Amino acid sequence: MLRFGERRGLSFVLPPASNYLGHPKPFHRSMAPALANRSGYFDLLVHHARFNEQEMRHVLAPGAKFVTIVREPAELFESLYSYYDLVKQFRVSLDRVTNSSLVWVRKRLARKPLDKLGLNQMSFDLGLEPFQFNDLEAVHRFIRHLDSAFDLVL
Description:
Order of helices and strands: HHEHHHHHHE
Main location: Golgi
InterPro entries: Gal-3-0_sulfotransfrase, P-loop_NTPase
Structural class: mainly alpha
GO molecular function: galactosylceramide sulfotransferase activity
Helix content: 25-40%
Keywords: Glycoprotein, Golgi apparatus, Membrane, Signal-anchor, Transferase, Transmembrane, Transmembrane helix
Number of strands: 2
Strand content: under 5%
Protein name: Galactose-3-O-sulfotransferase
C-alpha cells in the first residue's frame, strides 16, 4: 500500500514516530498530522491504529474504502511474542505462557509497554474494548458494525 500510494502521489496519515498511530488508544483525528494537500483529506491510512470508523472518516477522503487483514488468533499471539521478545518481559517460554492461567497472562500484559498487546488482539485493534470481550451482545454488535464498515476483509 505504501508503494502504491507513493507511486501515485497520494497522501498518508503518518504517525510522528514509529509505526503506531496512538495505539493503544482508538484512533482520533487529532492523531493525524496537519495536512499539506489542498483537498483537506488524506488518501491512505495504512499504519497501525485502533479502528475508529467515525474518526478515520474525518481525515480520509470521502468514499474511502476500509480494508483489514484478520489473522488466526493463536498464530498472531505467537508472532507478537516473538516480535516483541516477550520471553524477556515474561521471563518464561511461550509454551509456559500458553499453559498459564488467564489471570497470570492478563496481569503481565497490563504492564507498559505491553498494554497494547492482548489475548484478543484482533478485536482490540478493530475497536472492541477489553471490558466487552466477554459480553456476547456487545461482541455481536461489534461484528455487525465491522461487517458494515469494511469493504474488504482478508
